[in-house]
Write a structure and sequence with these properties.
With about 200 residues, this protein is α/β, with parallel strands linked by helices. The chain has 4 helices and 13 strands. It is globular and about 45 Å long.
Length: about 200
């Protein structure tokens, strides 16, 4: 069963519905230790990076145990940004730090926040984007993003090029919202569920 964290950063209803559509069994852990029983972990979220302050030391330790065991973790939007060392949006707050670097504001963008559909440009094969066509459109809504890095598996641009999807081992992140991205988003979630239940 997949654990879907609720740390008060957005409505989880659409994520739960999308996961149900791909056949996933999902629950929301009340305590960090409950993650130890999960087959995979999803960290969603919208809004300000400071919301991740709720994911304190116990939650971080549980997430790291899951990663170290080889079970998959997926960060969505703000959840992806949390995988990094931090964000300029809340510079005094550390991220989980499983991916190197920091997220920054889309300063070159013509309009921020970036809200709308953008095409994905895959940069290398990945399990999280398996079956997703080059140039597929997905839905974004954000003001901060991670720069492209060796962990990047797809990029897009809004004034500047940024990481749209990342992957390192069993850890993946998508800056877009798969639960709002139609068939393509369901494919991404299906890929995650398949890895979690393999």
């Amino acid at each position: 069963m997949i654990a879907l964290i609720d740390y008060g950063a957005g409505n989880l209803t659409s994520v739960r519905k999308a996961l149900a559509a791909v056949g996933a069994e999902v629950w929301t852990p009340a305590q960090p230790a409950e993650i130890d029983a999960a087959s995979g972990l999803i960290v969603p979220g919208v809004g300000h990076f400071h919301a991740t302050v709720s994911l304190g030391a116990d939650w971080r330790a549980a997430a790291r145990r899951l990663i170290e065991s080889g079970r998959p973790l997926l960060g969505i939007c703000l959840g992806m940004q949390w995988l990094y060392e931090g964000s300029a949006e809340a510079p005094d707050l550390a991220g989980l730090g499983v991916l190197a670097g920091s997220c920054t504001r889309l300063s070159a963008a013509p309009k921020v926040p970036h809200v709308g559909w953008n095409a994905l440009a895959s940069t290398r094969p990945s399990w999280i984007l398996d079956g997703v066509d080059q140039g597929a459109y997905v839905y974004f809504t954000h003001s901060y993003a991670a720069p492209p890095s060796p962990d990047t598996v797809a990029v897009t641009a809004h004034g500047e090029t940024f990481a749209a999807a990342v992957e390192r081992g069993s850890v993946a992140g998508v800056q877009f919202h798969p639960e709002k991205s139609g068939r393509v988003g369901l494919q991404v979630l299906s890929n995650f569920v398949a890895r979690a239940t393999a």
